């Protein structure tokens, strides 16, 4: 056996095993356990959580890559995916909010909007740096954690520690910045139609920029 054959033998990967039987078994176990607890709502949440996890895993959808890939590789496919997700979320949120008003419910106004402050900006920057270093956002970390990636096991531990530390720090940081935050709810200023037009115009502009950026960097807009 020559050296080349030995290298090929050592680097040969094990055959891929389908994880579908394990997924079906886990889903069945979750359903049975939920009914054992007599909590149908909990079963529903678990099933949706499992389905969402499968979608994330199969699509490799990751918010980190959506902001990282345009800089590192020039690809904006995930960036455009995030923009489409925001568009769908906008339609759904508007339908629910408008339906609530038509049925005599409470108008969802600025009181329901989480205000923006320096804490939000600082937290976003810190989290952005951390998720690039860790190789994934919260959803990406959980997805790769389940796949067995060692780095994400470490990231998950510090993700929990950071969340606890952040919740503790908010107790004394939020009162300091409470008078330096603001909130805006577009339908109150532009109306429902105006808010939708403004929102989708921004999304469309960003989508076109993402397409042109990818074509400039890698010569393809797919």
From TrEMBL:
Q: Where are the transmembrane segments?
A: 20-37, 43-61, 82-104, 116-139, 151-170, 190-210
Q: Would the keyword rRNA-binding be found if you checked this record's keyword annotation? A: no
Oxidoreductase as a keyword of this entry, yes or no, is no
Return the InterPro entries for the record: Sulf_transp_TsuA/YedE
The family database entries (Pfam families) matched by this protein are listed as:
Sulf_transp
Q: Name the lineage.
A: Bacteria, Fusobacteriati, Fusobacteriota, Fusobacteriia, Fusobacteriales
Protein name, please? YeeE/YedE family protein
Q: Which UniProt keywords apply?
A: Membrane, Transmembrane, Transmembrane helix
């Amino acid at each position: 056996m020559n050296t080349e054959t030995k290298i090929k033998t050592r680097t040969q990967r094990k055959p891929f095993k389908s994880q579908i039987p394990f997924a079906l078994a886990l889903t069945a176990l979750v359903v049975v356990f939920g009914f054992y607890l007599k909590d149908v709502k909990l079963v529903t949440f678990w099933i949706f959580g499992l389905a969402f996890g499968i979608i994330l895993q199969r699509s490799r959808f990751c918010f980190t890559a959506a902001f990282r890939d345009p800089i590192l590789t020039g690809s904006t496919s995930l960036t455009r995916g995030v923009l489409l997700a925001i568009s769908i979320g906008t339609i759904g949120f508007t339908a629910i909010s408008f339906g609530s008003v038509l049925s005599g419910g409470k108008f969802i106004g600025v009181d329901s909007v989480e205000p923006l402050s320096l804490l939000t900006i600082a937290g976003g920057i810190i989290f952005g740096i951390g998720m690039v270093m860790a190789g994934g956002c919260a959803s990406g970390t959980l997805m790769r954690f389940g796949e067995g990636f060692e780095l994400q096991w470490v990231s998950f531990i510090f993700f929990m520690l950071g969340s606890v530390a952040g919740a503790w720090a908010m107790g004394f940081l939020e009162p300091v910045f409470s008078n330096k935050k603001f909130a805006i709810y577009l339908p109150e200023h532009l109306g429902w139609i105006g808010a939708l037009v403004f929102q989708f115009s921004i999304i469309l502009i960003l989508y076109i920029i993402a397409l042109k950026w990818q074509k400039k960097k890698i010569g393809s807009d797919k």
